[in-house]
Write a structure and sequence with these properties.
By secondary structure, the protein is α/β, with parallel strands linked by helices. It has 8 helices and 14 strands. The strands form 3 sheets. Strands 1, 2, 3, 5, 6, 8 and 10 form a 7-stranded mixed beta sheet that branches. Helix 3 packs across helix 4 and helix 3 crosses helix 5. The longest helix is centred in the middle third of the chain and has 20 residues. It is elongated and about 70 Å long.
Length: about 300
C-alpha cells in the first residue's frame, strides 16, 4: 500500500488511495485540533484505519467528515486529552473500542445535522462510553431520539436503584485487611462504610451528569435523581453530594447553582459549607455568600474570612 501525507498545522495525516476513495492510515503531530479532510485530491475520505490516532496525546478535538463510512478498531483509543469529537450520527461500520481510554471525552457531536439541545445529546452520548460504561447505548444513528433517551433513562434508573452494598460480599480478599479486590482487579477499601460511600458517590456523579444535561428527561427519573442528591446533601446523615461537588467540582458554578435550585444548599447548611471550603475555591465561596447574604444573614458571620 502506497501512503502519502497531507499536512496539518502542527503535524501530518498519512493516507492511502483505495479504488475511488481515501483511507486515513495514521496521524502524527502536536495539533490540539485535527480536522480530517472530506476530500483529498478530489477523492472522498471514507475509512479511518485501525489505530490511526492511537495514543495521540496532544489532540483535544477531532472532526470527522460526513462521508466517512468505516472507523476501524482502536482508531482513536488512548487519546488521553481528547475532549470533543464530531462523528456523523448515521449508520457506520464501527470497529472495536474506537474511543477506548479516552477518559476526558466530554462531547460526541453530530456532523450531519443540528439536533435540538445538541450539547446535551453530545455529552450524554460520550458518557455512555466512560462514566456510564454502557456501550450498547453508543448508537450514532439513534442518539437523541425518543427511543434512545428512553433506554438511557432506564439504564440510569436501574443504576440508581441498585443496592450500594450489593457487590461487597462478592469482593475477593487480597490478603490484606484494608483492601479487597473485585473481579476486575480494582482495589477497594474493605471498610463497609467506605465501600458504600464510594458507591453512593458513583450514583451522585450519574445523577449530576443527567440532571445538568436534562434534555427530555423522564419526570420520574428527574424526581428520583433530585431526591438522591438532597438525601446526601450537607447536614444529612451522609454528605456525599456535597463531597463530590467540593472535591471534584469546587470551582464549577453550575454545580452550586443546581444545589441551590433544589435547596441542597440552604440557610441551615450554608455556614458549614463555607467552613468546609476554607481558603479554597474563593470565587465560589464569595458567590455563595453573596447569593445568600443579600439580607446580611451570613455575610456578617463570615466577613472576617479572606476571599
Amino acid at each position: 500500500m502506497i501512503t502519502e501525507n497531507v499536512n496539518t498545522e502542527n503535524g501530518k495525516i498519512a493516507y492511502a488511495k483505495q479504488a475511488d476513495s481515501i483511507a486515513i492510515i495514521e496521524y502524527s503531530g502536536r495539533d490540539l485540533y485535527v480536522e480530517i479532510p472530506e476530500l483529498i485530491y478530489g477523492l472522498k475520505v471514507t475509512v479511518i484505519k485501525k489505530k490511526a490516532f492511537l495514543s495521540s496525546r496532544f489532540v483535544k478535538e477531532i472532526s470527522i467528515p460526513n462521508n466517512i463510512e468505516k472507523i476501524e478498531d482502536y482508531a482513536f483509543a488512548r487519546c488521553r486529552n481528547l475532549e470533543k469529537i464530531t462523528i456523523p450520527y448515521k449508520t457506520l461500520n464501527l470497529g472495536q473500542d474506537i474511543l477506548k481510554d479516552c477518559n476526558k471525552l466530554e462531547y460526541i457531536y453530530n456532523g450531519l445535522e443540528k439536533i435540538r439541545e445538541e450539547d446535551d445529546v453530545a455529552f450524554l452520548l460520550a458518557k455512555t462510553l466512560n462514566e456510564l460504561d454502557a456501550f450498547f447505548l453508543f448508537d450514532l444513528e439513534n442518539a437523541g431520539s425518543e427511543e434512545w433517551l428512553k433506554h438511557l433513562d432506564a439504564t440510569i434508573n436501574m443504576r440508581m436503584k441498585r443496592d450500594e452494598m450489593e457487590d461487597f460480599s462478592k469482593m475477593i480478599l487480597c490478603g490484606e485487611e484494608e483492601v479487597v479486590c473485585g473481579e476486575d482487579g480494582r482495589i477497594e477499601d474493605s471498610n463497609p462504610e467506605h465501600y458504600k460511600s464510594n458507591r453512593v458517590k458513583e450514583k451522585i456523579r450519574i445523577a449530576f451528569l443527567r440532571l445538568l444535561h436534562n434534555y427530555k428527561i423522564d419526570k420520574e427519573l428527574n424526581d428520583l435523581l433530585n431526591s438522591y442528591l438532597i438525601s446526601h446533601a450537607k447536614g444529612c446523615e451522609t454528605e456525599e453530594t456535597w463531597k463530590v461537588v467540593l472535591e471534584e467540582h469546587g470551582d464549577d458554578k453550575e454545580y452550586y447553582d443546581y444545589l441551590l435550585s433544589i435547596n441542597a444548599i440552604n440557610s441551615n447548611n450554608l455556614p458549614d459549607i463555607l467552613m468546609d471550603m476554607g481558603n479554597r475555591h474563593t470565587e465560589m465561596k464569595s458567590y455563595l455568600m453573596k447569593k445568600s447574604g443579600d439580607s446580611g444573614d451570613y455575610l456578617d458571620a463570615f466577613s472576617d474570612l479572606e476571599l
